[in-house]
Amino acid sequence: MIKTARTNESTTPRVAIVGAGIAGLTALQDLSASGAHVTVFDKSRGSGGRISSKKVGESSWDMGAQFMRAHTPEFAVELDHWSNKGWVAEWPVTPWIIDEHGATPSPDNARRFVGVPRMTGLSRGLLEAAAEFITQTRIVSTEFINNEKSGQWYLNDDNNNRHGPFDSLVINVPPEQALPLLPVDSPFIEQIQNYTMQPCWTLLLGFAEPLTTEIDAAFVKTGPLAWIARNTSKPGRHDQASASDEWVIQATHEWSQQHVDASREDVFAHLTQAFAESLGGQLPDTQDTWLHRWLFSIPTQAPELGAFHDNAHNLAICGDWCQHGSIEGAWISGKAAAQRLLEQ
Predict the structure, then answer these.
(1) Quick one: which H or E segment has residue 24?
(2) How many CB atoms lie within 10 A of CB 208?
(3) Cross-strand pairs, 141
(4) CATH number 3.90.660.10 given to 51-123+197-299
(5) 14-43+137-195+301-343 adopts what CATH topology?
């Protein structure tokens, strides 16, 4: 059970989660089920973190994580649970491989799931367990006030607002952004300083008519690209009244790092040309476009420890970078964060 230092008000534990990504929202499920009053903060207008979606004009794309799959039986059960809730659906896609020899289908037995009607359908479903969801609020510093019974957290945002008190804190942001939120005497500062995230340039293209290709998704093994996908091939995306075709083009992490500070015009031109070459022809005119730079896309290395837990400060730190770089890794980390807070 979560410790509380409050005596002159309700003893319901109050927990703050900074970051509405999958790890934080997974922790939310168990903390809320235990009876805690959980407040989720996020700097963005919506939820999901790196499963976020983007809409421009007539087009809409999943611009972060493209799908989720299970490598453990526990996460396979969770995916089926989310599917039964209507938050995700299976994407029956046959992936292709594109390399220097051309494009070939590469069928496998993997069950790939996506959020519906977009990836953020999952995060919105998970958010139903939150007592409060405070958006467009960047938490820039924290204060832990210790006392005889337990201790309390206060959070400060970039508009000089103070939030709290909270009995426990879950930090669900990339390691580079987590460090400024830790107490100065945290035992994990030096360890977390060793973890970094890699960037990823993501190009989103919308066409008025479907492109002439059998490919709906492909792992690209040559040039600057790592992945291309026809977003409209995913369940719940295609509008029967529209013939539009929306594509997600993601660069390799290596290329993205080499061009992390390149001009948007140059990146757009390079990735558009590489996409055209991957499909073996010229592209028609686009009707909508977007270019996004993920500075913190995937962990460079991950310790596979679940989550960091600082019992002295009623603090848990989670994210896929604490486990491994995937939605499953984020889920495992979030489960571990909640469990350790509830067991302290």
Answers:
(1) helix 22-33
(2) 15
(3) 156
(4) yes
(5) FAD/NAD(P)-binding domain (3.50.50)
Q: Return the DSSP state at 37.
A: E
Chain segment 35-52, per-residue pLDDT in tens: 999 999 999 999 999 999
Q: Using an 8 Å Cβ cutoff, are 53 and 61 in contact? A: yes
Same CATH fold, 51-123+197-299 and 14-43+137-195+301-343?
Answer: no
Longest CA–CA span in the chain (Å) reads 71
Hey, how many other C-beta atoms are within 10 angstroms of the C-beta on 100? 7
68 DSSP 8-state letter: B
- DSSP code, position 193: T
Alpha-carbon span 225 to 228, nearest angstrom: 8
Q: Is 0.90 surpassed by the pTM of this model?
A: yes
Q: What is the per-residue pLDDT across 164-214, written as a single tens digit (0 to 9) for each? A: 999 999 999 999 999 999 999 999 999 999 999 999 999 999 999 999 999
CA 163 distance to own-chain centroid:
24
Sequence ranges of the domains in the chain:
14-43+137-195+301-343, 51-123+197-299
The HSE-up count of residue 132 (CA atoms within 13 Å, CB side) is 14
Q: Which amino acid is at 141?
A: S
Helix H or strand E encompassing 54: strand 53-56
